[in-house]
Every structure is written in structure tokens, then in C-alpha cells.
Amino acid sequence: MISDSGGPSLPSNDGKTIALVSCKICGKSFTRHGINIHIARSHRHSQDLIDIDKPTDSILSETVNFSPSDPIECQDNIHLNTNSSNNEKVIRAVNNYEKDKSDNNIIKNTSSDIWFPYCGKVFKNLNGHIARSHPHIYRQNITERYANASPCLQKTEINNNNGQLKINENKLEPWEKTFSEILNSEKDEVKLDQKLDEFTLFLCNATSLCKGPVHPATKYYKARTTWKPNHEKSNFKTSNNPQRHDRRLKEKRQNQYRYDLMQYYYYYRRKKAVQKIMHLSDYKRCPFSATDVYDYFKETVGTENNNVLHDYPISSPLCNSIDEETIDYDCQYCTVTEKDIDQAMKGINLDTAPGPDRVLFKVVKELKCMKIISIIANIMLSWNYVPNSFQSGRTILIFKSGDPNSLKNWRPITIFSILRRIIERALERKIRPFVELSTCQRGFISTPGTFINSSLINSCLQKSKKEKGDCCITFLDVSKAFDSIGHKHIEMSLNSTSIPSQLKSLVLSLVKNNSVGIELDATTRTKPINIEKGVAQGSPLSPLLFNLSIDFIYRNLNDFQNASQYGYRLTEEVDNLIALGFADDIALISNNETSAVIMIERVNQCLTEIGLNLNASKSKIINIKKGKLMNTTVTTLNDIKINSIQAEETIKYLGVTYNDEIILDKCSIITNLNRSISKLITSSLLKPDQKLNILNQYIWPTLIYPLQCAPLCKLQLGFLQDIDKIVKNAVKEIVGLPCDTPDSMLYTSRKYRGLGVMKATWEAFLQHINICNKLQVSSDPVIGFTRNFNNEIQESLDHLNISREEQPNVRSLRKKLREKEYENWKSLPHRGRGVAHFSEWTHSNTWISSKKGLSSSQWTNAIKMDCNVIPVRSLPGRSEETRCRHCNESETLPHILGFCKKGELLRNNRHHKVRSAIAKLLLETGHFEIFEEIHCISTDGSTKRADIIAIDRKRDLGYILDPTVRFEKDLSQAHLVNEEKKKHYQPCCNYLSEKYKINTWEVIGLLFGSRGTITKFCVNILLHFGIKKKSLQEILLAILRDSVHIVHFHLYGHMNIYTE
Fold first, then answer.
1. Residue 507's pLDDT is what?
2. Beta strand pairing status for 649-653 and 656-658?
3. 212-221, 314-323, 597-606, range with the lowest pLDDT
4. How far apart (Å, rounded) are the C-alpha atoms in residues 324 and 433?
5. For the whole model, what pTM was predicted?
6. What distance lies between CA 813 and its chain's CA centroid?
7. Which long-range contacts (CB under 8 A, 24 or more apart) does 358-361 make?
8. In this model, does residue 791 exceed pLDDT 80?
């Protein structure tokens, strides 16, 4: 970045020459001190940043020479001559720098100091400076450490598969009545299609009635229709460049549109918002034209596959309670109830993509359309008819792996109407009890199939290595399996089950007679393609139908004779393992290479019989011979050649990386985490609380599965701590917290005003406990004999430093760990001051999750106040000057919120709001006469002023209520305030008795925390007076907002805090 070549230099007043250095990026010249500032200001995001460990001498390798008559280029790109007055200013500045340097006013680069070129400063503790001031470099350094330490392995991947509507529920009654009439009348398909289209249009328009943001296209369309030009306010007559003015306004509108669109996606389709922020949708765009895509898929899904088996085995229902003789076609299996639809909707994500009708699932759920959808489903069942709007879908292409210029490597995902998908989920729950699948098939079932398969494969590999035996594991890839299965074969497979004919007929109607349009981008879409074969990936019925269609393959492979002869003996308690399945991902486990060849040929024969083909180029083999990994090529009699992986090659199956055992790819995990977090942090389209939610809900879950599948011995503490460092650093940067924010606050539950951040050193072992608990109660016949779940659970508990339990619950364990962090936070002398109040009444902490009633700036500042990291002077390590900037007292957060004269008016206003709110709520109860700010005379003759006088005439009882807002200390503070107020106002009771004719008086002091907290003592008093919890929450939120305002006014001197 910096060049320093010998030659002419800048003359100084004492006759000496001062060497200049030039920037390799922009070519400008500076002094050695000025170049550091220039780099920090102009090239801080350059890809050519200097290595921080490189010494200064090696960086300044060249010197730029200037003669006294040569022009000198300075920072603002102005050429100066040495005789000019401007150049004299440059010389004077250089001389001042040399003088300061000789006077030791500038830190010298000694042997123990390190110069950091990113900001041009010198530090002894460079890592601490980077973590505090350059968090993105800090995270990148951790990432690069794993990237440099990890070997370059060739990877081969196996293909795997709050607001409520402001709408009257009475608006749904006409639709319920309409569809009920259609159900009870004669079959009229045209009328059903017409009314369903009208109902779909109603759901689309109902989006505008939601509490969430309006789509910016709608908002700007309304703005354009109501816009009227006002030439009197035009800036053209006062602007020197009207085009520049228009360009800036256009950019401003575009930026606002992007922000509004992202907020709309975050509320309704959060997954798409994540894709936009992470640029996942732009990672691989389909490079083909609409014509090429249409022609390709017309040949694949647009042609029929009539291949069927010669004989279909009859399968019995999985549920023994189902008796075929007692099945009534009007019973629960042939009728879709409102409860069935409700159960189906619970399994759908709120941000699922809409179909061609653009109806959002969030609208359907908040409208509570369960009854209407159940009526539509029953119409379809009784008529055996699929409405026209349900038969068309939109298909998007997702890149899998390999060459992006081949359409074979793009997976089509079909999205039908959300109403159809809800009905399909309900039907899938109806027919599942009638379908019995092979025990080898673990795809799309209730047990954690991916974890079981990966665990069994790893156990086989480890045993063969340990005993120096033979083991051959073949990962087979089926070409376009979901898209190529024949409809005739699906029909014959369904006929072999005991599914009621009414259900069976509707399921077949849903499979057939569909058409899709393939979307390449927002504006390009192919012509409709009729689906003549295959099941739509993205349809809820497709996984079960596909598993049923290929179930005969697993049954043939898992035959006792085949397993005994060709399978691998893992344990003596169970039969030999020979095949593991997860939908179309087939893994064959053989005792040697010869057995593997035979089993590959049998699978290929079965697939050919139903019109499917093996993809040998994407299939791989792990061949262990005498305990060592062999590099061979397996060739079958049909000339199918499958290569085995090499010593430094890895293969990915069901999301788990293998070589000769499971490999925890630390480099990939750290790199992907850092990349995702960096994109999230730099986005200006999301608010801080939204970024935290995405971090917890979308980024963090990507770490769970690899940590869960990795053996405990591979979960090194240092690796997990590095993950935590990256996440902690990112959270602090998102919220704007300083580096000395206590980590315990980050990990404390949001119930106690923590941020609830996940911790890798917890979750890695908690997830192991969770999966072991699930597998212990699993009905899988094999996994229980291959692993000791009790030992793994106890070992995980030891890592967490938790006492051993027989059946630990993960939620309760995580709760214990978070409570420990809360106790640590409370024990801190400065950062934990008053934190004990946060657990007194947790209803006052809901804003930390919902941010309701707070702007983004108020939310972040409130968090800073909670952990006492507001930039005041008296905090340790913050400033040498500890006196308040407005008075001579020590500047602390309690001083700002309670004593400083600067915010006295704002504090009085905060107190008056609390007093008025309590008085109003007491008056609304109807039990009290309320008087505010009443002057009363004490027995010693002094005058006092009572905030609230509440009189209950029926009980001849009066109350003197004095609310006060103070900074939180310990939990006894509320009782001390109450005693203080009693001592203060008790002498006034005689005067008030004479004035209001009330004999009995009670003085109550109410303490409110300046950070929006309240103790149980005060809560019980206010609830006893009839004040509702919701009203009390609003008071505490108002106190919090005012306190943030006071702090902002004290620090920056502005009366208005930034709001959204």
C-alpha cells in the first residue's frame, strides 16, 4: 500500500529534508505520520490492507524523492510549488510534527509497541485495540486462523434435499356461508372456481389491513395518484444544477423504497428478507433463457413415465388400531375438520413463500380461516375435484452443486397456493397411518433420520478402522428422482395400501393435471408446462408419496438373505446393516467391494424398472480395506463406474462431512459464520433488534446441525470459544455496545433484560443431550445398540458443569445456565448495579424483545443504561476527568438520572407524568376521590405538598401516595423509600383529617426505577388499588423513554432525541 523510494524530499525550515512516502493505491504523497492517517481515512476498506504483523521498515520499502522545485501532491489532490504560501503551510506542519516527535509528544514505535496501519496508531496491546475499535478485522483474524490451519480438502457433495389484523371477523361469515352452500348443493365446478377466486382476491386485499408495513409499491402508487405539482415550492429557480437536485431526490426515493421493501419482507416473509440481506438469491442466478428452460423441463416433467412393477406388495396400516372392516367413508379419515386444518397450519412457517395467487400465510393465519379452508377441503373430497386455481404453481430454480451451466444441476421447487398446501398437509396427516414404510427409510418421519443415518455410517467406519476390517459405503445419487417418478406407479403404490378410496382419489387428483410456470427472475417466466410425471418438490404430499413409491427398493435390499450375505455386521444384537435411506438419498453399507458391486446392480435394476436412473458421476464410495482408506474405482456389469474418495477428499451426505469418519469442518463453519454476520452488520435496511432476531433465528441454527452431528471428542473448547468471540463481537457492534460490556449480560435471558444470545460452549452439548433424549425414546431398532446415550448425556453435563441428572431437560438446563449468567451480571460492582431489580417484575422487560413503544435509538440506549455502559466520565477506564461536564459532582449514570442540574426540568416532567398517570388510573377504578399536588401543613408548622390524595369514602380511609423515580440499588430500596415517605408525611395526617373529614390515613411511598423497573412490593400495592398490569407496563415504559431522553440531553445537549 505504501511505497518509499529514495530521492528528493520536502525541505524544512532548518535546511533538512523530510522524506515523503507515496500511497500505492492512489499515488498521493505524505509524511510518514500523514500516510497513516490517509490510509485510515481513505483506504480502510481496501482489499490490499497491510498485514498488521508486518514491521514498519518492511512496509516503507521505497522513498519518493522530490526536488525543491517539484510540485508536491497533498491529500486533497492540489499540486503545490515549494515557493507558494500553501507549500509553506505544508512545511510548517511537517516541522511541527518533527518538533513534537523530538519532544516525545507522539508515541514512538519501540520494540514492544506495534504499529497498526489501519488507523496509523501504535499500541502495546494491539489485539485489544482491534477488538474494541475494528471489530470486523477482529472477526476476520479469527476466521483466517482457521482458514490457514485447515488443509485444502477437495469436497464432493451428495444432493440432499406479532401483529394482528384490524379486521372484523364478521367479514368471514359470508364466505363461510357461501362455501357451506356449495358443499350442500349439487356439484358445480364453475361456481366453486369463481367463488374461490373471489375469496383469494379478498385474502390478497386483506394484507393492507394488517398491522405490519404496507408494500412500498402500494404506498408509492397511492402517493402518485394523490400528488399535485406545486411550482411555487420548486427548487429549480434557486438551484444552480436542477439535474443534480433531481438525481439526489431520485436516489433518496430509491433508498427509501429499498428500506420499506425490506421492512415489508421482514414482517411478512422474513426468510426472503434474510436471503436479500445475505445475497443468497444473487449467489447463483440461472444463466439460461426462458426458451431453453422451457424446452428442458418440457422434456423432463412434460413427458409421461408409464413404467410400473410387475407385482405390488400389499402393505398393512402402520396403526394397529385401524381396522379395514370398520372404516366408514364418512368417518374422521374422510372428513377434514377445522381442528385438522388448525393442526396443519401449526407446522407451516409464517414466512413461507406465497403461491401464484400471492396470498400470504401470515394473513390466512391471523384471519383464522380454518373453518373456511376445512369446508373447501370437504368439497374437494366429496366431489373428487381440484379447483383450477389450485392446479397451477410457480417454480423457482435452486442451484445444487457442480457446473451452473448445466440445467441438471438446478433443482426445481414448485410453490402452489397456500390454501392448497394447507389442505395437502391435512390430507398427509390423514393417510400417513395407512402407510407402512421400510425401517431403512428415515426420510420425512418423526425420528431424527439424518442424525441416525450419519451416526450409523460413522460407527461402521470407526469399527472397520479399529478392527482393521473391510467396509464399503456407497452413496448413490438418483437423477431427477422426484421429477421422474411415474404417476401410474404412484397410483399403483397407493392402491396397494388400505387408504380409503375417497382420500386416495383426491390425492391422485392433486398429483395429476398440474401445470407450472418457471420463474427465472422477478420479470421473466416461462410458458405453463403440464406436469406429466414426478411429484412437485415443495408440495406437502410429495415426500410421503415418493417414499411409498421407492419403498419396494429398500424392502428388497433389506431382505434377510441379502443382509446376511452382503451387509456389514455392526453389532451382534441386530441384523447386518445393508441400506440406509433418506428419501432419494441411498447409502449402501457392504462388507467388501464385491458385495458393493452386487448391491449397486440390484439398486440400478429396481430403479430402471420404474423409469429412474443412477447418476454415477455424483455417486461416491468410501472404501475401507484392512482399516485403511483405498482409492479405487468400482465398475459393475452394466458398466457403471463409481469412484471412491481419496485420502484428502471429503464427501458430504445429509449435511455431514465424511472422509474415513465424520469430520467437523471448522474452517467452513467459521468462514460461513463470519461471512453471514458481516453481511448482516453492514446492512442499512434493518434495525438493530431485527438484526439480532435474524442472528438468533437464521444464522445461529446453521451451526446447530454440524455441532450436533459431530462426536463429542471433536468438539474442542477453543473452537467453540472462537465461535462465541465472533458472535459476541457482532452483537456488540449491532447494538452499539462498547467492548467492556459484560458478556454475562449478553447471555442472560431476555426475561431479565439480557439479550438472550446463544452460546456455542453451551449449545454444542445441549444439542447432544437433546438428540440423545430423542433417540432414547425412538423406535428405531438399530441406533439404540450402537451408542451409549446415558454416557454421552453425562459427559455433556460434565462439560456444562452441571450436576448429573437421569433425564435432563434441555430447556431447564439452558434456563439454569442463563440464570447463572444473570447472577454473574448482578455481582459486578459497576455494570451490575441495580440489576437485581430486573427480576422483580418481569412484565417490565417485554420491550427488550418486542421493542414496542421505543425507537431504535431509544432501544439501544436503554440497553446501554441497563448494563451501565453509557459514556459517562466516572466509569473505570473511560476518562481521566471524572467531574460532571455540567457541575462539579462525579459524573455517573445515577447522577445524570437523579441529581444533575442539567436535566432537572426533564426529571420533573418525568415525575409529573408518573403522578398524573397513577392519579388517572385510580380515578378510573371508581373507588376513590383523587386530588393532586395538595398543600398540607405538618404538626411543626412546615408546609408540604402531597403528590396524590386518594380518598375511599365507603371505608373512611385516605391514602397519601408519593411516587418517586430513583436509580435502582438493592431490593430493600422500596421499603426504605416507603419508610422515608411515611416519616415525611405522617405529621400531615391531622391537617388532612380536618380538611377532608377522614379519620384514618395511610402513607405509601412508591418507588419506580429510573430504568423502567418496579419492585414486587410496589406492584402488589398498585394491583391492590385496581391498576391493571398493562397500564403499569405503560407507565414503566414512559419512565424508560424519559430517562433515555435525560441521558441524551445531558451528553449531547439536544432536547429532542432521535426518533424513527
1. 94
2. antiparallel
3. 314-323
4. 12
5. 0.81
6. 22
7. 358/204, 359/200, 359/203, 359/204, 359/417, 359/418, 359/419, 360/203, 360/207, 360/268, 360/269, 360/418, 361/418
8. yes
